[in-house]
Amino acid sequence: VTSKGIYTNGKNSDSNGEFRTIQGFSKDYATNTDYQTEPFAILANNFWGAWDYGDQHLIAAFDGTDNSYGNYATGALGSDHGARKQIIKKVIKFQVVMQFALHELEAGLKKYNDESLPTASRYGIGGAVHALDEWWAFYAGSLEAGTANGFGPYILAEKRSKNFGTNTCNVGNGGVSCVNKHLIDRTNNLKVLMQSEGNSAEILKDVKCMRALLKVGPIQGCLEYAYKSSVASA
Fold first, then answer.
1. Please, which domain of life does this record's source organism belong to (predicted)?
2. Among 211, 196, 139, 193, residue whose Cα is nearest residue 171
């Protein structure tokens, strides 16, 4: 089985009798108008000009072809094996899976506020709060012990933290990233708030905070590697 085959067909994650696919995490945004109301999706679409920008990047990288969006293009580098490897790793973990993890958080917010649903479906254990478990599962990944030894979006905030002074927190599992500390704290706070009515304003405040926190790791990464690759620091 090729890496592209696993990306497009799935392998280990079952959902309702079918394999989830990482490709689906991105492609679904091109057709699901509900997904297209999410702030991160809107932000990405405005920048790239495509709801499924992640999948378009990845298919090009798997195939070794050029990626071109507006002023951005991989050009000849798109066929370089080293570049393809980095594009695939980074886009999957820190764009496609991170955005889908956030989608689960957004789904919990929508379910909590959906007055057409019965009370149990909004505030019960299988309601909005269940989406929080899914958000964290996709964010941290199944192999993460806490110290950036896994393969999910969680590792980015841990790895970049030491170079930006955001490594002064105790996540409780060996992690030190203040980003991840704030994310798990907000997640646990939401687990309480989402099990009773009347908390919409406070819930939205936490979700907005978490959206902002998820931008920190990618920004740190861009700054760090822009510096490392600059002429001045070479």
1. Eukaryota
2. 139
